[in-house]
Amino acid sequence: xxxxxxxxxxxxxxxxxxxxxxxxxxxxxxxxxxxxxxxxxxxxxx
Length: 46
Fold this sequence. Notes:
Number of domains: 1
Largest sheet: none
Oligomer: single chain
Order of helices and strands: HH
Distance between the termini: 49 Å
Structural class: mainly alpha
Shape: elongated
Number of strands: 0
C-alpha cells in the first residue's frame, strides 16, 4: 500500500481550525507569543 492510497482517509480540518489558520489577528498573536518564548529561551542560555 502506497502513502497516496491513504489520502482519502486523512483527517479533515474543522471549520474552526480553518478559520484560525486564515484569521490574521490570531496569526499575529501566535507570532508574538512564539517570539517571546524564543527570547526567554535565549536569555536563559546566556
